[in-house]
Amino acid sequence: MIISLHIKNYALISDLEINFEKGFTIITGETGAGKSILLGALNLIAGQRADTSVLLNKDSKCVVEAEFDISKLDLKYFFEENDLDYNKKSIIRREISSNGKTRAFVNDTPVNLGLLKELSQHLIDIHSQHQSLEINEKNSQLAYLDVVAGQEKNVAAYKLIFDNYKLHQHKLYKSIEDEKQLRKDFDYFQFQFQEIEDLNLKSGELKDIKAELAIITHAEEIKLNLSKVSVLLAEKEDSIISQLNESKNAIGNIAKYDTELEELQKRLQSCYIELKDIGVEIENKIELINFNPERLNYLNERISIAERLMRKHQVNTEEELLLTKQRFETKIVGVDSLADEIEKLKQQIKSFEADLSKNAIKLRKQREIAIPNFEKAVTQILQQLGMPNTQFKIELNTLKQFTPSGSDEVEFLFSANKGIATAPLHKVASGGELSRIMLAIKSIIAKEKTLPSILFDEIDTGVSGDVAAKMALILKDLSLNLQVISITHLPQIASKGNQHWFVYKNNEKDVTSSHIKVLSNEERILEIAKMLSNEKTSDAAISNAKELLGFTSKKTVK
Questions:
Q1: Residue 496's pLDDT is what?
Q2: pTM of this prediction?
Q3: Domains in the chain, start-ordered, CATH in brackets?
């Protein structure tokens, strides 16, 4: 239930606070005093969008804050899922800055409007003329029937399967489209892959090719210089190796006289062996190096193809080119993979359809059982509300496709006049009739489930006299199970409230502002007397007001 509402700098309200009680709360006031402003403030709490036009003082921000007792509502899971602090008494706050920015908070944690709307649906049901129109919508009608049928859990279980079904349908559609595109591009992918595949390029190969090209291109120069070195190292009389060998032998002749010379001889021996080995390698290298035009052309062509492919695919290395080939290969293989995935999805969807069909039949059976009692209950309440010839019927039709609520479609049929056949509600019911039908449905639903607090605005449109008295009793009865707040202009309804708030305007220093106060018993008598006699407070009106309130002339009014 809503505990309090604090409004600051909103429309004609400078600063106002209302503390609500359990049961039945009445709000009355003269036309234009600000009753609709209260409704607008509560709509902000419910997540409705707003702009700076609502600011009374354009230089200050607007704040609307409501405190709710949620201890009897199963909402702890909601707070945990959305990372919100859970308190049995929770506060929702909306702020509208002068620059147009708006913010919303739940227990001081910032939230977006979508989350606020979702939460507020569990806290307060604002029933306005607009909501009366919702009863014309088939989805709303089906939802009301399911509540009366007591199968909200069944609908939730079905909806879980349906959501998975739609998700897999979406996946199937996307996979089919992807497969079509892949098949259309298959030849292109195959060609691009084969072009790189035919090159048979290895990682790091271009570096080796460039090195080999340098050798072949400069083969003559390399051989010439290697030959010069080979001649110098050859074992001829004046060669480096011959002179080094003589030097080694000369030191060997005298090494026996000086141990240090033995070490020098060993070092010369090492140089001699190393130079001989180098000479052999150079001779081998000279034999291997030849100018080969065919090999040169082959390597040039290979590197040219590789560089062309790298430019084509906008890559810089062989590794990147090989990754490109791998991507094309994946797309080629993906055609077959997608075909397998599509078949798998089709089988899963068939399984979901079987489950949906089974659950939809279960839902339909419960709806068929609930319809007669629902029709009877609504008809009885409408007859009490001054519509004695009412006919209210519910038509249940089976659809060929699955919907989020099953495979049924509901149509509320209505006739207010004797001898006139029923027709779809949206075609024949007036605004006042829609309000009464909605009240009847809400009063029935309240007995089936825990509803949030309900605020009725203009529920009494087009109602007066005995019908108004009966409507008041229905609202009073409804308030036994939940908190009911009614903005009304009917004394019959106003007299049944446990708490009565009065909205009024003040004009001070050329500034109009709205205020609200809770009425004492004496003030209630006077207010209801005015409502009975169009602002005149005659003795007869006061007497009638006391009677409506249950006060006798002998009883002292406190």
A1: 94
A2: 0.67
A3: 1-136+449-519 (3.40.50.300), 149-363 (no CATH), 520-558 (no CATH)
